[in-house]
Amino acid sequence: MFYIGWISLTASGILVGILVFLWALKTEQFSDQGRARYLPLRDDFPMAQAQNPSKATGEVYALLFVIAIGLAAMATTVILTLMSLGG
Amino acid sequence: MNILKDEPYGTTKGFLLSSAAWMVAGSLAGFIGAVEMVAPELLGNIPWIAFGRIRQIHTNLVMFGFVGSALVGAAHYLVPTLLRTPLHSERIGKASLWSWNLAITAGVVTLSLGYTQNREYAELIWPIDIGVLIVLALVFYNFLQTLRRRKENLLYVSIWYIVGSFVFTFFTYFFGNAVWNPETGSIIGIPDAVLAWFYGHNIIAFFFTTLAVAVAYYIIPIVARTPLYSHTLSLIGFWTILIMYSHIGTHHIIQAPVQTWLKVIAVTGSIGMLIPVLTVLVNLWLTMRGRLGNIHADVAGKFVFAGSVWYLLTCLQGPLQSLPSVQRLTHFTNWVVGHAHMGILGFAGMTALGGVYFILPRVTGRSLYSARLADIQYWLILIGMTGFFVVLTTAGLIQGNGWLNGEVVYRILPEIHLYMVLRASLGILIAGGAIIGLYNIFMSLYGPKGETS
Questions:
Q1: Same domain, A5 and A35
Q2: Is residue A25 part of a domain?
Q3: Which of B194, B227, B262 sits opposite A38 (nearest CB)?
Q4: Range of the domain at A12
């Protein structure tokens, strides 16, 4: 009957979550989402700026390559899984 | 010497430097382990670096020492900055810093001497567990008091993630390490497997993931020079991660005789996990849209963006490997080791490094010692991590496919030897990147004034 403890633990986590959610409603945390978007932008430390911000750099192509490899690896895993099920 | 000296951002600086030092130690420990996989006799069976010990030292150092220190240090910068309120107590922060480092040091020493609780990521013995719990409680208290005196009433999403992280991590660590059983740090039988993976999964979910996401949500709008795409969407992600992520650790033991209903919950929750993950990625990427040049003009933005790419891949793989049919192929193989490296080094580690390089100039008041060295470190880690992923995934598929076809372990081992050589070679890139990072971060803190970034 160990899962009674497991369910109690999960339920207590959900209860804490509900209490915090109610606190957030009470303190109007969800009332001004437009302003919340700008909160990090108070940072005024000087930073390097790209001459053409929309231009994709070499890093972007490198990361697209990483994504392609990752998806290929997952596709291979799925194919081998299906083959093992068929066999 | 006053180790609890009250100085602005002293806690943050200490955690960031600690992270850099532990990254060197952790990656070297990993390299030793990788060499032992290639040539088991090479290091002469020295007991305190035998594979069973050095592997645990490596994972604990990288997770808690490198990534954990960087993220906790970043949190000590983000909380006061976003709340427009000084940290409640730098002295408590410093006490957290020293206790954290003491716990990690004690962990290395005890693990190397063979004192371990032998539950994955929960290996540290009871007295160290208590030390970690004290640190988590101190950090939470410090943040809570800062929160109570805040000048900015509205909580940005990063604050939600950070405060939530420390609440959930405290309870995850307490229950997951079964601290009421000091002798073993565990309970008995299958229930302990369930508990151990409740811990193993949630420490990733509610410590590394949530803190890394908090850092990304803060840095990306600043580096892209535009407001966050949607704060509402970010909060949906925060609340759904609490619902989807907290109870699915059993997907690590689908092959074990655990109750079926628990496995069903774990698998369905794992697929549902895509909701919070995609809210984060869609939100961050739409914030960056049309501004990738700005993101990559800043080394911190570069690290965080790469972290988000690894987050995507990790969280597509996670639900995939929770499926029982897929797990028949991948379980107990190097495929899973590749996945772990993606999550901790690729996603959380690169995001944490982004946090380090973003925050350092802001707490020292001067530019990084060398943006070029940080850039070199970026490429070493990106290439090393991509190599790890390819090599470990391929080796894992060879193992899994061979075993499913009736091959025995000792016949498969020679087939993956080449991959173990490649893995150790790639480890040199990661360790090299770590050493460069330590030098750069140390010089940024204590060296002469650096170049303009």
A1: yes
A2: yes
A3: B227
A4: 1-39
- Whether B181 contacts chain A with CB within 8 A: no
Q: What is the pLDDT of residue A1?
A: 58
B322-369 pLDDT, tens digit per residue, is: 999 999 999 999 999 999 999 999 999 999 999 999 999 999 999 999
For A23-60, write each residue's pLDDT tens digit: 999 999 998 999 999 999 998 888 877 788 888 888 99
How many domains does chain A contain in total? 2
Residue A47, domain member (yes or no) = no
- B430 vs B378: CA distance, rounded Å: 10
- CA of B286: how far to CAs of B214, B289, B303, B305, in Å? 17, 5, 17, 12
Say which DSSP state B156 is in. P
A22: in domain: yes
Q: Which of B190, B243, B320 sits opposite A77 (nearest CB)?
A: B320
Closest CA to B386 of B430, B351, B417, B418: B430
Q: Which residues of B touch A8 (CB under 8 A)?
A: none
pTM of the model: 0.95
Instruction: Examine residue B254 and state whether it is found in any structural domain, yes or no.
Output: yes
